[in-house]
Structures are given as C-alpha cells and as structure tokens.
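Hi everyone, sorry if this is the wrong subforum. Our group has a chain we'd like a structural model of before ordering constructs, and none of us has done structure prediction before. Sequence below.
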Amino acid sequence: MIHLYNIEKSVSAGVNRFFILRGITLDIRPGEFVTIMGPSGAGKSSLLSILGMLDHDWRGEYTLAGHEVHRLKPNQRIELNRRYIGFVFQSYHLLDDLTVYENIDLPLSYRNMSSSARSGRVAEILDRFQIVAKKGLYPPQLSGGQQQLVGVARAVAAHPEIILADEPTGNLHSGQAKEIMELFAKLNEQGTTIIQVTHSEVNAAYGHRVITIRDGSIEKDQRIREYVPTSQG
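Answer:
Right subforum, don't worry. Here is the predicted structure as tokens:
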C-alpha cells in the first residue's frame, strides 16, 4: 500500500543544510499496524506529515496505493489525502466552535455525499463510539479522553484505509490511553492500516512492527507480532 524510497527532508542552516530525514526507504502493507519510535527530534512526526501529505517540502519517491505522490501537484495530494487517510493528533485538533456532531461531519463535507448520507454516516459513528449523548456539546465541554475519542471518530468517519496517529495518547491518563489503543486495535482487525508515532512501549505492543528512527534515519525495523495480510495485500 505504501512505498517510500530514499525520502529526504532538509532545512537550510546558513550555508549548510540540516537533514531532518535522510534515506528513508520503507514498505507498509495493507492492514499492517506500524509504530514509529525514536528520541525527540529524530524525525518521527516529520515522516508522518509526509505520509499524510501535509508536508510537500521533501525529496524522494512516495507511492500510495499505486499513486506516485512525488509526481502529484499539491491539490492532487490533498485529494489523495481525503480519499485514503484519517489523521489523529495528540492535541485533538477539534474545532472549538463546532459541536461534536459538526466536527465529525466536517471531513464528510469534502466528499461528494448527499446531506442524508452524511447524516446517516455521522449517526452511525456517534453510535459506534457511544457518544450520541455528546453530539450537541462543544470540545471545551469534554474531557481530554472524550475529545480524543471524538478525534478518532472524526478520523474514521470517511472510512479511510489508513489512520495516521501522532502521539494519540500523549495527553491522556492510562485508562483513557488504553481505551484509545484498544479502539485502534479493533479498527486494525477490521482491515484499517494504522501508523502511529509514540514514545510508549505499551502502545507499541498493539502493533505488528516497530520502526525506530534516530537522527533522521531508520535504525531498526522489527516485527513484534504476526501480520496476516488482508485481501488487498
């Protein structure tokens, strides 16, 4: 599903260039649950931003589901992002002036869906995540765990094939973190490809592989649990 070849990202530092990512070559298959780990500043979040097509300032080759991302224009990458990817952020990134219902509906508004289809999808997600009672509330009225649950619900509302999660439990206590990770595990069992960035060994244990990045390069790629290919793999 994902193929990266020699991905590099750098920034100018006077007359020199500082590499944030260098020589990243990686394959991720449909239905894998992959964890990216490493020390702060190693380039983990930068790699996730490239995978999510939120960052266009990089070099190398990136193929997503047969689409050569490195050859696409920014607006084409945005469309590919909307088609394939749901993003979960550590800081939730919910819109405070929108209700829970409206936050979940937002990614659907970019799709070619009728209002009745969108309403049905949001209702399905609210029920699935057991947050029907929260649909009229605003993010500041929710706990951190509830906000992250809404963030995950929003990410999966459009049925993405891939979820990218950047420190998804970093602001949560252990009970809330376990709830979110078990939700990711369930989504993965249903066929969703998940790529998470985390410092947590506990969170990493939910996945199939751990990729360790240090100083912008892959230091280790270790399989920790059996991966059963999906029908797409």
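For your construct planning: Helices lie at 44-51, 74-84, 100-105, 115-128, 144-156, 174-189, 201-204. Residues 145 and 175 are 9 Å apart (CA to CA).
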